[in-house]
Structures are given as C-alpha cells and as structure tokens.
Inverse folding.
C-alpha cells in the first residue's frame, strides 16, 4: 500500500518522533533506561492489559452512548478532569 501526503499537508509533523534521537542519546550518555511507550505496539513489546481495565472497557462498550459522537473539543467533564 502506498501512502502519499498532499502537498498542502507537508507542514504537518509527528513531533513525538523528534524526541527519539534525544532519548537514545540520553540512554547512551547517562545509562538511563528508556521505556518506549510513545511509539509502537505495547502488547507486542510484552505489556499486558490489566483485567480490571478490560472489564471497564467491556462495561462501557455495552452503553449506546459509547458509540455517539463527542463534542469537537471533547467532553467538558473529561477535559476538566484532565
């Protein structure tokens, strides 16, 4: 599959990837362990989803409201919480 980005979108960047070379350098110089949660599949990397989290998702998915569109800026209560 070929993926092309329109010239009109050429200004878009994927900022998180700019941090990778910096983190790798920090790892080299300081011997710090970096947990790469920003890129890739966490399950493939050996992470397990806790059962309690799966149960919460199952319960939420049973509610019709879970399939509704959210406001463009997000749900106010969630935004306030975060």
């Amino acid at each position: 599959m070929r993926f092309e980005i329109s010239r009109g979108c050429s200004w878009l960047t994927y900022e998180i990837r700019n941090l990778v070379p910096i983190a790798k350098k920090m790892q080299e110089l300081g011997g710090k362990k970096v947990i790469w949660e920003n890129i890739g599949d966490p399950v493939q990397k050996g992470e397990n989803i806790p059962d309690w989290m799966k149960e919460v998702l199952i319960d939420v998915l049973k509610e019709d409201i879970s399939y509704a569109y959210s406001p463009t800026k997000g749900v106010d209560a969630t935004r306030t919480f975060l």
